[in-house]
Amino acid sequence: MLVSYNWLKDYVNLDLSAAELADKITKSGIEVEIVESLNKGITGVVVGHVLECVQHPNADKLRVCKVDLGEEAPVQIVCGAPNVAAGQKVPVAKVGAVLPGNFKIKKAKLRGEASNGMICSLTELGVEGKLVPKEYSSGIFVMPSDAEIGSDALSYLNLDDYVLELGLTPNRADCLNMLGVAYEVAAILNEELRLPEVQVQTSGEKASDYVSVTVDAKEDNPYYGAMIIKNITIAPSPLWMQNRLVAAGIRPINNVVDITNYVLLEYGQPLHAFDYDRLGSKEILVRRAKAGEEMVTLDDAKRKLGANHLVITNGKEPVAVAGVMGGATSEVQDDTTTVLLEAAYFEGIRVRSASKDLGLRSEASSRYEKGIDRNRVYDAAYRAASLMAQYAGGEVAQGIVEAGERLVPEGKAEVTQTRINTLLGTEIEGEQISDILKRLRFEFDVHGENYIVTVPSRRPDITIDADLVEEVGRIYGYDRIPTTYLLTEGRPGGLSPYQAARRKVMRYMEGTGLYQAVTYALTTPEKSNAFTFSQEQENVHSIKVSHPMSEERSTLRSTLVPQLLEVLKHNHHRSIDDVGIFEISSVFFAHEQSLSVLPEEKTYLSGALTGLWSIHPWQGEKKKIDFFVVKGILEGLFEELGLHSRISFESESLPGMHPGRTAVVKLDSIVVGFIGQIHPGTQKEWDLNESYVFELDLDQLLGASVEPTVYQTLPRFPSITRDIAVVVDQNLPAGDLNTVIHEAGGELLKESSLFDLYEGERMEEGKKSLAFSLKYYDPERTLTDEEVTKAHENILRSLEERFGASLRK
Amino acid sequence: MQDRLQALKEEALLKIQQASDLKELQDIKVSYLGKRGPITEVLKGMGKLSPEERPVVGAYANEIRDAITSALESKISELEQAVIEEKLKKESIDVTLPGRPVRKGNAHPLTAVIEEIEDLFLTMGFTVAEGPEVETDYYNFEALNLPKGHPARDMQDSFFITEDILLRTQTSPVQARTMEKHHGRGPVKIVSPGKVYRRDDDDATHSHQFMQIEGLVVDENVRLSDLKGVLETFAKKMFGEERKIRLRPSFFPFTEPSVEMDISCFKCGGKGCSICKHTGWIEILGAGMVHPNVLEMAGFDSKKYTGFAFGMGPERIAMLKYGIDDIRHFYTNDLRFLKQFKKA
Ligand SMILES: [Zn+2]
Predict the structure, then answer these.
(1) Which residues contact A220 (CB under 8 A, 6 or more apart)?
(2) Which pLDDT score, from 0 to 100, does residue B144 have?
(3) With pLDDT > 90 as the criterion, what percentage of chain A qualifies?
(4) Is the pLDDT of residue B37 over 90?
(5) What distance, in Å, lies between the first and last C-alpha atoms of chain B?
(6) Mean pLDDT of chain B
(7) A473 to chain B: which residues are within 8 Å by CB?
(8) How many residue pairs bridge chain A and chain B with CB atoms within 8 Å of each other?
(9) Which PROSITE patterns does the annotation name (chain B) (predicted)?
(10) Same domain? A680 vs A761
(11) Interface of A with B in 608-627 (CB under 8 A)
(12) I want to staple B192 with a disulfide (CB 3.0 to 4.6 A). Which of A307, A356, A497, B129 is the partner?
């Protein structure tokens, strides 16, 4: 809503600047987003009288004018506007004047003729082109003949005004009109309110002799009223009205249309003027449109209507789409003499469906959608009729021809002084409360400390006690509410064990050198499940949003990996090729084709790594990321979570992954994730370098019960370490060997660690050598050589039996 | 005899002083103090001395031995020190060469902001509540006083999956769920962070996916003035002790009264600059007293219980705090962007 500061003065005394007013309105609950000065830096523009206007001797398109500026002698101005003529009053920027954009007017010579100033168009004075009346759109502006020569032109053009742009929340549709804003401002400033006085002289004729009104859709159109105004002369509306429309962002058209728009802005009541003689009947019938019905609207577009649209008809054909736009055939034109003025209440939902389907949003439709004050329909109609009588020479026929109920009962709401003060934390006196309600112009009764308020129909947002608490609070002033501290019992807060563990995981991941990424949950159907690691994941349905903005953001993901690969790609395209990132986010699984219950949501921890891992350039060290770098990160994580002894990695073929360099991660016997190198084919498809990824079901990991830490006594006896190197089949996993080593080593074997792997020339084809360092220890005594030898030989024998391993010589 | 000893001593000490390496000293030691050395030789002639002279000469001889030994030792240690110093000198490095880089990642700036806010409220006795990102219409709208057809639903065009299931447009459904779990008994004190989704075209200031963090307190006698206290504490901790706050009446369907909180501009201190759009104030969050309908729907007696709720956007806070100009940076994850938040 654009509010003219000067216009507002009609209703409320304003002894403060526009900026001060804006500040007060904002503090009281309606945000003033912008205070715009219409002046835009203009100085030195006065009313001039064109005394003489002749063709420029050397230029076809220029005229040389003698203009009286109220000074001793007239000045000569060269003007290029086609519509300049002798006898006009025009805005003149004098020599030394400044126009918007800091454009200074200087003495000039144009094709040999002196020019001492500039006759201005409205756009040159800073008015937006689309708001300039058509007749002045390609020339200078012509002012009323009674404008005083030499006086400040800006006040004639209302360019000394300020416009306050209100950012209205949906509950405050009452301020979508000047009167509503006036009520608000009068309450805030504690000032008198002056409502417009409407007096209509009616002719002897009766409106009901001209038209009948029937409504066949009472629910959509609870009230319809029609007035008849005869003997209209179509002409421009008065300059002050045009100025106010321009300030509110509406282009002046002619007196009749301008008046309907003016009253719309003033009362918030949309009105429509039909050319009575072009209506085609003496009947108004409001009904739903028939499917496929067509009409040509004011903008000369042919509109196809449907059964959920409400139309005004002449009994046969639609003449307007209710609350949205009038029809071309019944449009007010220059020769119009009799006007049928429509003042109706249409339900917002009906107007909305038409305005949405037809793609037409107007000042009128948006007000109907947000809700208008039904009890104001009458006042607005009479206001418009009286203005048409005054400014268009109209004669108003008696009465309003109507259908439906015009008035609705006003609501009631109650609140107690105690409730106000306990909810706000204030100590507002009863007298102050009464005073505030009076300022808001709410009628009320006081019973003890109980206030029973009759809510005016302009404020349908007020229904319960809390609404009244807010009204009292905001007029009282939120800055006067004290600052207190919660009295709630002092129970300690804290993170849940899961939340604390999740943070620990983040810190660990960051500590390993990975950066945390946050990516979008919506992706393409293909990417949404491009990576899986368990049967269960493959048996789910994809979850698509019903109206995606694009295919790229249409489906909820069940894996984080594709979005992380997108991040690698983004960076790769910017020559950032050493990247390690992780993400902790939700993934979604639907266990049914069409969701009847919420999908399953899990939290995954995933990562993607590419390029170099450790770099120390001047020492010549460059270590590439490989499978084992990533595995090491995960092993450290499992240790951090106390799960490492229950975790195993098993080679597996997974979609999109390198078949020989991918493993599933198992917790006990359950697959909880995977790790591996991206398949070279996939890598090429994504335009990446060699990349590694992992994905883990974090909920499963953090949900696993972990034994509490128990202190192990430090060794009191020496341990004995012996190495063992065996030759085995090349494809035998080292993990299998390690398992058997531990089984065979018995109680005495405390640790085994692989320290050498050899596959090469000196090895028999298809064989490899693995060397382990084994540590034997007994907490109760010193071990003897014989015992250790026995255990060690037992291990070797088991390895021979199970894997055909032979001792490496 | 004593004179001879005296001469030997002086001769030995001179040689020691002139010695230049350990081997030379070893030779001196052997030649003067050894079994066949001159001192031993001299002492062999002691038998010829009178019983009175013997102890005197003996003591003198020992004195000379000690003097030579100690001179030798100090010269040895002197030479050893020189050797060590020489060695260390050769080992010296250029300390200005860069160190071995330690890999260290960091949290995403949005996580950093959320955790900072969480931690602040944890110290005030709040817990962190979380809920699903795919929600029912009931929890996302209806339980929050937004029945079907409510005009404010227009304000948040949503990603629906079915008629009844959608991507949550706010974290408020977590409030509704948490209150429900309390079965009408207070106190409830939570903050709930998380991702939310709206049908917005992505541009510099809009994102179809973004974060929210909301807070909720429900108890007997919770007042708007208490909300002011909590928000003031928050603003000062988050944006500096000198911050002032301002509550402006506003509108949210799930609170009544509703407020918006501005903080005095941390850039210009209130004089007006481009960050605060020359108003001196920066809009930070929306808040209000929980609407009685919301309390009742969640099973609380709105005559007995009152509460407040507040909600804010971590993106906006991060953008203000770090001067980030485009919301899309948060979701593009350019490494040059992520790396800037090491100390966040
Ligand atoms: Zn500032």
Answers:
(1) A286, A288, A310, A322, A346, A347, A350
(2) 93
(3) 81
(4) no
(5) 86
(6) 90
(7) 224, 249, 257
(8) 252
(9) AA_TRNA_LIGASE_II
(10) no
(11) 613-616, 618-619
(12) B129
